[in-house]
Amino acid sequence: MPHLLQSTFLPSTSSSPHLRPTTHSQNRLLHLSRPARRTRISAKIREIFMPALSSTMTEGKIVSWVKSEGDKLSKGESVVVVESDKADMDVETFYDGFLAKIMVEEGGVAAVGSAIALLAETEEEIAEALAKAASSGGGSIEAAPSAEVKEIKAEVEKIVEKAGPPAAEKEVKVLGSSVHPASEEGKRIVASPYAKKLAKELKVELGRVVGTGPLGRIVAKDVEAAAAEAATPVAASPSGGAAAKTAAAAAGIALGSVVPFTTMQGAVSRNMVESLSVPTFRVGYTITTDALDALYKKIKSKGVTMTALLAKATALALVKHPVVNSSCRDGNSFTYNSSINIAVAVAIDGGLITPVLQDADKADIYTLSRKWKELVDKARAKQLQPHEYNTGTFTLSNLGMFGVDRFDAILPPGTGAIMAVGASEPTVVATKDGRIGMKNQMQVNVTADHRVIYGADLAQFLQTLAKIIEDPKDLTF
Known about the structure:
This protein is an alpha+beta fold. Strands 12, 13, 16, 17, 18, 19 and 20 form a 7-stranded mixed beta sheet that branches. Strands 2-8-7-5-10 form a 5-stranded antiparallel beta sheet, with helices on one face. Strand 14 and strand 15 form a beta hairpin. Helix 3 packs parallel to helix 4, helix 8 crosses helix 9 and helix 8 crosses helix 10.
């Protein structure tokens, strides 16, 4: 294909993207947006662009380069790990060649569509690529270490300085088993690329860190905790305010410091600000949960989760009230979504994400529960694929496990409604025969887009939801 021999050193309208992103769990091809046209250079040297890994991504951070300058690359081979606003993803090359020049170093941030590296078709063209990169200013592009790594380093140094050098006879806490639970007989340590990078920066031995990710995988927070723990010798516990300060320092929190948003926090911030442009209203409802609680106790041993039960009940109610499952994106029309995809808010280290239970009305409760556990594990390891977090049509946010009895949730952009679920608590109520009784009840509050959904719509939806939860026989079919 002759057009493949044309390339640019600045973002250009290439005939096809040069990279494809994949999550660590599966290799899947995603569509990448094309960069804007700039000056073209005739050469068999191609740019590697920062891909768009999600519809909301505007920039990405280089977590780690899988390949080094001068390495030979084969089509479909992973080249770099990129942190998007939702997950860490491997990015593959579409072409054979040699990695001639890395233009954005690990920890650096680049806009979607901008060049992050150069790919030479032959080894002889590497020198030409380097020369052209230098002449176009690319040779001087070197990102400073990420603010996150700098902050962690500074925190560890403060802890060491305050604690002072430990005496030779003092025993330092053992960070964990030297044989990692996810390794194969101790031969291999399983860690995310970012965790490996942090471990190198903070001089943490991964073999002594116990991972908290899926199957014992070491993630970034494990390395941070290990670095802080290793820097603090075993000594008498301080008292009063000193204890609080030491605890904050050990947790990696520098009191009084200004911390920039992570990529995920930045995405959450943008979405929340965008949601302010949507006219919303809220409707609350009290639901008796005695029957649901009894069902949960009965089938919990089979792996069923309360989240799956609530998602299933919500999905069945939405089947009867499709307008509550609709969405308005342009302000001029709305869409009756063809699928009922329940997104559930999950708090993860450094942000918030909403894994999606797709077609929740059609899946049985056991399949739904297994899928939910899988999604949560992938979310906490930052391995979700885009379709697993950006296809929700209705959102659930549950703080009941924290004892919160009621709260309001902010409507995510592009959806019609979100339901905030509080804790189920024993409540004194009046029975139908005029007596006083005790029932478990929970408060739910729905926030909805008033351009599409009206008060009567939500009231009817909540009545249906209450009937399903109070007589949950349909949830197990």
